[in-house]
Amino acid sequence: MVGSNNTISPAGLASFTQVAKLKHLGGGTQTFQTSSSAKGRYVLIWFTKLPPQPGSTSVFQAFIYNLLVRGSD
After folding, report:
1. Taking the alpha carbons of 32, 42, 62, 9 in that order, is the dihedral positive or negative?
2. Cα gap 35→32, rounded to integer Å
3. What is the CA radius of gyration of the chain?
4. Alpha carbons 48 and 64: distance in angstroms, whole number
5. Separation of alpha carbons 6 and 29, rounded Å
6. Alpha helices, H only, 1-73
7. pLDDT digits (tens, 9 = 90+) for 4-36
8. DSSP SS3 for 14
9. Whole-number Å distance between alpha carbons of 49 and 24
10. DSSP secondary structure string, 19-65?
């Protein structure tokens, strides 16, 4: 999601535009291809389901490393 509102509220989230979606995130490098153009200052990555931590059935987590966002004016 991309947007310019930095207010932490439902109204602030409603102003964001979804530009990409993946149904399943695996390990390794992931590339999101945008489905529409949008302008904004902030990028929101929303996890709706976290994978279990290896060796655990009660701890769920995900990590993001080296995020690169490319765009144009």
Report:
1. negative
2. 9
3. 14
4. 15
5. 28
6. 10-14
7. 998 888 888 899 998 888 877 667 778 888 877
8. helix
9. 9
10. ----S---SS---PPPSS----SEE----SSPPBPTT-SS-B-----
- The answer on pLDDT for 41 being more than 70 is yes
Beta bridge partners of 6: none
Residues with Cβ within 8 Å of residue 11, at least 6 apart in sequence = 5
Can you read off the two tokens belonging to residue 35? Answer: 């489905």
Q: How far is CA 55 from the centre of its chain?
A: 26
Query: What pTM did the predictor assign?
Result: 0.69
Strand 42-43 relative to strand 2-3: parallel, antiparallel, unpaired?
antiparallel
Tokens of 54: 């290896």
Rounded percentage of the chain residues whose pLDDT exceeds 70: 93
3-state class (DSSP) for residue 21: coil
